[in-house]
Amino acid sequence: MNNNVYYFAQGLPGFEDLRRFRLVEEEGVPFARLISVEEERIGFILIRPALLFPDYGVEVDDKSAETLKLNPAANEAGSANTNLDEKQNINVDIWAIVTMNKEDFAQNTVNLRAPILLNNIHKVGIQLILMDEKYLTKQPLIKDKSFSQEQEGAVG
Amino acid sequence: MLVLTRKLNETIKIGDDIEITVVAISGDTVRIGIEAPREVRVLRSEVYGEIQRQNREAVTGEEFSQALKILKDFKIIKKENS
Fold this sequence. Notes:
heterodimer, A: BH3618-like, B: alpha+beta, Translational regulator CsrA (chain B), cytoplasm (chain B), repressor (chain B), mRNA 5'-UTR binding (chain B)
């Protein structure tokens, strides 16, 4: 299906040559896969960060908003940047890339510093590097210490 | 490249809107304050490289379904009613 293919004009950092990615959403969970159309073996696991980090906010600069084809008329007058609140910008989905740690799943992290933004009307996407240094490229997915115990049980 | 010498608390203006201040000097570390309009993106240069490395580390290929299963099994996602 073509309608889930997003065009990334700048590629993704580290994969600048890859421009088209297919979003495959997983039923019943806030995960998705982002798979390169050009190079099918290259893909990422995405998660909706808002569920884990309710205060997570993304501010889109003008140039990125242009790349994302956000409607400038929707922005508040006088505001240079677009505050990307999902309620206000229902056309844009915010995802974050999960890094799996194969040795220790408690060490799985999510990249909150550079979320993936997808405009699901115009089918364009960017990986936006946020200026705010409080967001980490390796934010632990799980803070709960009981997780590792649970993991042993589940794996064994 | 234009090279200027500045002392502690001295500033440099770039255009009308951007002001750079030397806030602190300690050994080989310089803390710099930047005042710029909100639409100007200010990033440490190495951040892009950091994201590149993180993306390369995050890439999954055929082990996708396995990885997803693990994430689901460990109930990493809280139920919405909890």
